[in-house]
Design brief:
single chain, alpha/beta, Signal recognition particle alu RNA binding heterodimer, srp9/1, 2 domains, 5-stranded mixed beta sheet, 4 helices
């Protein structure tokens, strides 16, 4: 394999690792999430501050009416009075099926690690082969 091609391939792998790491650690700086206790959540619903919520099992995420902040709270499972209070205060309520295992998320989180392990395994193997090739040329190389 041409050494120029190997150098370009190494740079592509390094660039992919950097991009994957950036995707892994980046944060959404435009939105601020406020963690609420259950009692704080109920108070804010009563005061009409909440615009919409999405419920995922025991997690509740939502948006305020007057700010761009998001809210998060842990709620009891199937707590009907909470839903009744949300509906009574004209809060848009959405339910989402709780996913125990999100394949895409696992793949994205594992990709930098897998690329790094692959890089650490392949580079020594290719480097060792290149060393042997230059040190002990094969008979076909003289032809």
């Amino acid at each position: 394999m041409n050494s120029d091609l190997k150098t370009k391939a190494a740079w592509v792998v390094i660039l992919l690792l950097v991009v994957m790491e950036w995707l892994l650690v980046r944060t959404d700086r435009d939105r601020h999430t406020v963690d609420l206790s259950f009692s704080e959540l109920m108070t804010q619903i009563d005061h009409g501050k909440i615009k919409s919520v999405t419920i995922f099992g025991n997690d509740l995420k939502g948006n305020y009416k007057d700010t761009s902040e998001e809210l998060h709270a842990v709620i009891p499972t199937n707590f009907r009075p909470l839903v009744d209070k949300l509906v009574a205060n004209k809060v848009s309520v959405t339910y989402q099926k709780e996913s125990n295992w999100n394949r895409v998320s696992v793949l994205i989180n594992a990709a930098p690690f897998l690329l790094l392990v692959g890089f650490c395994i392949l580079v020594p193997l290719l480097g060792f082969r290149m060393f042997l090739k230059h040190r002990f040329p094969t008979p076909s190389a003289h032809m």
